Amino acid sequence: MPDVAHNNTITFPDGQSSWSALLKNADARIGEPDRFDGQRVVFVVDSMQQAFGAIIYGLTHGLDYGVVERHRVSPEVAGRFAENGVTLFDWAAVTVMGDAQHAGDTLEPGRVTVLTSGTTGLLKLIPHSWDTLNTFDRVAELPANTWFLPYQIGSYAWFQMVALGLFKPGQNLVCGDFNDLAASFETALHTGQITAISSTPTFWRHALMNIGFDLIQSAPLTSISMGGEIVDQAILDELGGIFPQAKIRHIYASSEAGAAIVVTDGKAGFDAKLTDPARAIGVKVEEDRLYIRSPYSNKADASGWVDTGDLVERRGDRFLFCGRAGNTMINVGGQKAFPPDIEAYLNAHPNVVWSQVTARRAPLMGNLPVAKVVLTKGADTTTAERDLTEYCSKGLAEYAVPRMWEFLDSVPMRASLKS
Amino acid sequence: MERQEILDTMNLVMTNKGREPITDETVATRDANFRSLDFSEVALRIETKLGRELTFDAAAMRNIDTVKDVLDFFEKATA
After folding, report:
1. Mutation site, B41, B69, B74, interface A, largest A CB count within 10 A
2. Is a pLDDT exceeding 80 seen at residue B10?
3. What is the pLDDT of residue A178?
4. Distance of alpha carbon A282 from its chain centroid, rounded?
5. pLDDT tens digits along A33-91
6. Per-residue confidence at A116, pLDDT binned at 50, 70, 90?
7. How far apart are CA A320 and CA A411, in angstroms?
8. What residue segments make up the domains of chain B, in order of their start?
9. May I ask the CATH class of domain A330-408?
């Protein structure tokens, strides 16, 4: 594991700190780490500042640990932790919550527990270490950056960004406030210091609707990373137009497969050459299903491959993402319509900020595609349904044209920054 | 549901697709360019409006030939 970049700064809503200062405060608050002997502990925190304190404390003292926000700890979630032998520790009150659990043989010092609700909604504890979370370790030279950090505490994406700030000198973090992410992003942009951001397409669509265009365009961004959901050509083109100076990349990563595919050519999907077996990070596609073999993965079969459960489709010299296996295709009277394709087409319309296509049960055809759409400000909502139907009829198969439309006022965004 | 309301729903589907609205009940659905997908959409829109799923008589659905048949069908299904 590399050394901690102790002088990197972390900016919170109420001030700035460094890893050194955070460790000093954490040691003073929590005391000797032997109180956690024999325990797999998850620190329950109320703020980003507490979370960062817990991170550097656990890393420095080699704990088997993780962090979770207090509001996520329902009785069911607490039960889930207990089932896994996890002791919950209240960072603010400096005391164990509920009963201390004894990890016994399952204790793994150095393990970092990442939390994900995944697609099932059920909290999952994903075992990692700082080695598997430090996905930037292969980047030899990284220019100094100030990153806006929009992710939820304890998520895989959050840990990746924290690892970047921990181990890569010159990588400073500015934490977003999840109570009003757009407002905190706006505040951060006003400082003129944000040079990089890792987020999702939904985050950007949300920001572009809620923050003045001039302010966004004035940001001196040199590095934009996106992931977490399908990155379509429309958002790549839009950000490329706003930030011609920025290196825009989209990253395929998951909490189980790790970070595996980084695309920098400004195009959606990934180059089919990445499936070359000689590559260090393996990518293979079997029956349109994506498999990854990565040193950052935490779950693989005997041959090292992780079945991602994501579907891709070969188009020319690229593979495009088609969504998750099992819940992507809409069967319209025996014809297959794919929501990601329809959404990508809709998102390319100049009046569309965001779209989501789902199936509705319908007589005769079995299912019909229906769409939720957020229009650009000022777009004519009275003609939108007809205009978009006509637009889709020109570029999509008839069975793939959404049949009913719902127009939303804002981009819905979950805690994962996905929609 | 009133016959006129059903016809209005059919014509909303038609005009959204840039087609001429239907004015003659006796015309065949094929000649009016009213397709199976449109029939399914009209059913979905009616279900949404009524807030309940409709029960359809598959045999009656197979015998639909004219616009009048469609109107009769939905009139009966929503009764």
Report:
1. B41
2. yes
3. 78
4. 21
5. 999 999 999 999 999 999 999 999 999 999 999 999 999 898 888 998 999 999 999 99
6. confident
7. 24
8. 3-77
9. alpha beta
Choose, out of A361, A364, A365, A386, the residue to mutate when testing the contact with B (most B CBs < 10 Å). A364
β-strand A40-45 against A86-90: which pairing, if any? parallel
Q: How far apart are CA A51 and CA A58, in angstroms?
A: 11
Tell which CATH architecture fits domain A266-326: Roll (2.30)
Stated as kind and residue range, the H or E segment containing A41 is: strand A40-45
A406 in contact with B at a CB cutoff of 8 Å?
no
Is A399 in the B-facing interface, judged by CB distances under 8 Å? yes
Sorted by sequence, the CB contacts under 8 Å of residue A79 that are 6+ apart come out as none
Query: Looking at this predicted complex, what is its ipTM?
Result: 0.90
For chain A, the distance separating the N- and C-terminal CA atoms, rounded to the nearest angstrom, is 35
CATH numeric code, B3-77: 1.10.1200.10
Q: Rounded to an integer, what distance in angstroms lies between the CA atom of residue A412 and that of residue A209?
A: 11
User: In degrees rounded to 5, what are phi and psi of residue A353?
Assistant: -90, -40
Please judge whether A363 and B37 are an interchain contact, meaning their C-beta atoms are less than 8 angstroms apart.
no
Report the distance separating Cα A217 and Cα A241, nearest Å.
10
Q: Is the pLDDT of residue A92 over 60?
A: yes
**In terms of DSSP H, where are the helices of A192-245?**
201-210, 213-218, 233-242
| Domain A9-132 shares a fold with domain A330-408 | no
- Least reliable range by pLDDT among A44-48, A396-400, B14-18, B56-60: B56-60
User: Are the C-beta atoms of residues A118 and A104 closer than 8 Å to each other?
Assistant: no
Nearest Cα of chain A lies from the Cα of B17 at a distance, in angstroms, of: 6
Q: Which residues of B lie inside 8 Å of A (Cβ-Cβ)?
A: 15-18, 35-37, 39-41, 43-45, 48, 53-54, 56, 61
Segment A236-295, tens digit of pLDDT: 999 999 999 999 999 998 767 777 899 999 999 999 999 988 887 889 999 889 999 887
Q: Note the Cα A59 to chain centre separation in Å.
A: 22
Task: Report if pTM > 0.95.
Answer: no
Per-residue pLDDT for A1 more than 80? Answer: no
Is the domain covering A9-132 a CATH 3.40.50 domain?
yes
Are the beta carbons of A63 and A33 closer than 8 angstroms? yes
Mean pLDDT for the stretch of residues A182-203: 94
Specify the higher pLDDT residue, A176 or A323: A176
Q: Which of A87-91, A186-190, A209-213 has the lowest mean pLDDT?
A: A209-213
Is residue A271 within 8 A of residue A318, CB to CB? The reply is: yes
Domain locations in chain A as residue ranges: 9-132, 266-326, 330-408
Task: List beta partners, residue B37.
Answer: none
Q: What DSSP string runs through A252-319?
A: EEETTTEEEEEE-SS-SSEEGGGG-TTSSSEEEEETTEEEEE-TT-S---TTS-EEEEEEEEEETTEE
